Amino acid sequence: MPSIKDESTVKAIAREFVSNGRNKTEALRTIGYKDSYCDTNGIGVVYSNIRVIEAIAVLDVENGAKLEITRELVVKEAWAIVADPTSTKTEITRALALVSDVQGFKREAAPNKEKEAALAARMTDEDRELAGIAALVRTEQEARRGLKLAEVG
User: Fold this and answer.
1) Which of 31, 81, 99, 117 has the fewest C-beta atoms under 10 angstroms from its C-beta?
2) How many Å apart are CA 30 and CA 33, to the nearest integer?
3) Do residues 56 and 65 make contact, with C-beta atoms less than 8 angstroms apart?
């Protein structure tokens, strides 16, 4: 069993903990601790050690700096694609989506699932049919508008 007194063990614990998604048990198993130690109070002993805490903090700072540089490069490249007059609409859309993802602005696909479910539960069959017809009418109107714009342009 590795010794927590050894500096290389401390660094290995921190490295494995940070790299494996912050799973304490798996990090200890990976560097050679026995399963019985990992599943008992061993986790508390190891992760309450001040040297392990400091080693993890150092890696977090290093990784944070690397992540920020990577983020900046991605955003810079994406804006270059947007500014490039030869970029297609698809490339521009993808670049803008990437920028919003990197900066944390991405929304869930359907953020109001609960509201939709509650609304569907309150609707009668007739209401559902009318809503479907209204959606078809709106879709047809939008399609006609698009055709008119295409004819004019």
Assistant:
1) 117
2) 7
3) no
Q: Give the C-alpha separation, 83 to 58, whole Å.
A: 38
Name residues whose C-beta falls within 8 Å of residue 82's C-beta, 6 or more positions apart in sequence: 92, 95, 96
Domain boundaries, the chain: 7-102, 113-152
C-alpha distances (whole Å) from 127 to each of 86, 106, 113, 130 are 48, 32, 19, 5
pTM of the model: 0.46
The answer to whether residues 2 and 12 touch, using CB atoms and an 8 Å cutoff, is: yes
Q: How far apart are CA 153 and CA 151, in angstroms?
A: 6
Structure tokens at 11: 């660094």
pLDDT in tens, 74-86: 888 888 988 999 9
- Tokens 């109107």 sit on residue: 141
Q: Residue 7 has which token pair? A: 């500096």
What does the block give as tokens for 37? 């130690």
Average pLDDT of the chain is: 81
Neighbours of 27 (CB within 10 A): 26
Q: Which of 21, 24, 18 is nearest to 39 (CA)?
A: 24
Burial class, 81, CB count within 10 angstroms (exposed 0-12 / middle 13-18 / buried 19+): middle
